[in-house]
């Protein structure tokens, strides 16, 4: 991340704490975002979209239902991320905005890099083979892929609104397109 982008996100986090949620913590949000990413990615890979109602916006869920049904099994398997397999997480963009009715929103885009052992073809563009682990002899190799995902979390801070974060964008480049 560039220093300017880093400063910008820290400034927005300060605004969130000052004007919306005095208890807001970047570390706590990131921890929760990782957990949500793992839960949602596993449910996507298992095609259990009905369990995503409370976590994902209705618009995103509708798009996911169409895309998931068309995915080959190898790509669907590659969507799943274990919390221990997340190699790196960073914020992509933080926005504070108001709609025409005066409702207040905060959205935070999180980027995840995770290892996955799905049986992806070597010609999958955009994914990176990180390494192969050899257990025992040369005939038992385990291939891991470093994959990326972008999840955008949104919360309404209008008085009386539910204090829940909702996922409003899900991107798994080259897998879920």
Walkthrough of the structure:
The protein has one domain (3-171): Nuclear Transport Factor 2, Chain: A (Roll), CATH 3.10.450. Helix content is 33%, strand content 31%. The protein has helices spanning 3-20, 26-45, 58-70, 73-79, and strands at 86-98, 104-116, 128-134, 141-156, 166-171. Strands 1, 2, 3, 4 and 5 form a 5-stranded antiparallel β-sheet that branches. β3 (128-134) and β4 form a beta hairpin. It is globular, with a radius of gyration of 18 Å.
Compressed to H and E, one letter per element, the order equals HHHHEEEEE
Low-confidence stretches: none
Estimate nothing, just give the exact number of structural domains: 1
Radius of gyration: 18 Å
* Helix/sheet category: alpha+beta
CATH-derived architecture? Roll
pLDDT averaged residue by residue = 88
Number of distinct helices: 4
Tally of DSSP β-strands: 5
- At the first level of CATH, what is the class? Alpha Beta
**Shape field:** globular
How much of the sequence lies in strands comes to 25-35%
Helical residues, percent: 25-40%
Oligomer: single chain
Main β-sheet: number of strands, strand sense, barrel status? 5 strands, antiparallel
CATH-derived topology: Nuclear Transport Factor 2, Chain: A
How far the N terminus sits from the C terminus, by CA atoms, comes to 25 Å
GO biological process, one term: protein insertion into mitochondrial inner membrane from matrix
Organism: Rynchops niger
GO molecular function, one term: ribosome binding
Protein name: MAIP1 protein
């Amino acid at each position: 991340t560039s220093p300017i982008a880093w400063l910008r996100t820290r400034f927005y986090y300060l605004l969130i704490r000052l004007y919306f949620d005095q208890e807001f913590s970047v570390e706590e949000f990131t921890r929760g975002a990782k957990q949500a990413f793992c839960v949602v990615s596993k449910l996507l890979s298992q095609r259990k979209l009905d369990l995503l109602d409370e976590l994902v916006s209705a618009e995103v869920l509708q798009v996911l239902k169409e895309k998931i049904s068309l995915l080959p099994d190898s790509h669907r398997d590659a969507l799943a991320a274990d919390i221990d397999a997340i190699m790196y997480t960073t914020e992509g963009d933080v926005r504070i905005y108001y709609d025409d009715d005066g409702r207040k929103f905060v959205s935070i885009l999180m980027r995840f890099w995770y290892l996955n052992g799905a049986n992806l073809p070597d010609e999958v563009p955009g994914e990176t083979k990180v390494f192969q682990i050899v257990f025992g002899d040369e005939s038992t190799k385990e291939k891991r892929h470093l994959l990326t995902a972008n999840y955008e979390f949104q919360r309404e801070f209008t008085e009386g609104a539910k204090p829940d974060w909702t996922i409003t964008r899900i991107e798994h480049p080259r897998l879920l397109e």
